[in-house]
Amino acid sequence: KSKSQAQGKFKAEQLEIKKIHIAGSGAIGSLLAGAAEKQGLPYGLYPRNPVFQVNKASIEKPEFEPAKTETPTPYFVEWTDGTEYPIRQINSNKPHLSPSDMLVLPLKVHHLKTALTQWLPLIDKRTPVVLLHNGMGGYEIAKSILPAQQPLLLATTSHGAMKRTSTQVIYTGVGNTQIGIAPHLVSHKQLTMPEWAKSVCHTLHALLPPVRYQTDIMKALWAKLAINVVINPLTALNNITNSHIAGEQFANERKTLCEEFAQVANACGQSFDAIEIEQQVIKVAGLTASNYSSMHQDVKNQRQTEIEAINGYIVNMAQKKGIEVPLNTLLTKQITARLT
Ligand code: PAF
Which ranges carry the Ketopantoate reductase C-terminal domain (predicted)? Predict the structure, then answer.
């Protein structure tokens, strides 16, 4: 089944967002574009890096240039019911984003600095920006590049998508997306969500439901980090699916990683219990039993992994707080060694 026409008429009157710009055409970026195509929301899907070749004389005048290594356009997103939606990557028009556009960056933390620097001259200071990645550290990068008042949301998703071939992305598992306003923009006096945040959440929910708004998004990001700290390096190093992480074979590593995580997270102002985290890890490993984790896929395909944003982040924070995290340190070294 292939659909070239948008299925649903996007209910634009309920929303302020007129167009979604997706910076990065990996599996999740492509999935979002497929959802926009499905719902009839105008979208732009752009190559990850370089999106624009920055003019050396002035970063105010970026030259748009197609990335040479990206998937050729058009290609297809296969939905959970088997319907295929054709999506196109834009690589010739230089966009200018208004306050009623939104920019989503479904990019790994190590790609964010370049991407945000390239997008900055093209966005209005009121254009909402959404970061969507595993691990930590993206928020700090965005804060150092974007103007202080730029509308910024942080998000994490458990939807599964996979590039099957260079022309096909499959929606492998319906999950959910948790999203919240960047902490420096949250006013404790303001009890209701600002309109721009509502518009972004409504739009994302209409595209890829469910979207859960979190008043404390950092807590949600730490909770997701705990899952990745355990599942990702162990599946990548042992060449196994997520299901194995729930089993007896990894009981010791699982317990130690959860204890190290809880110690560091709590020293950073969070409040986690190692036993509860371990139960959550076992649950997610069960729910995603037949998946190969993203780090497994990166190692297998010899791509740069997210280790620095996951276990490496725990190691760095532990150092700052004077805490020993030997297993996180070992796994970070082992994963890093795989790609050198
Ligand atoms: O990175 C991943 O692969 C995912 O976040 C998760 C939840 C570990 C499932 O594979």
Answer: 216-336
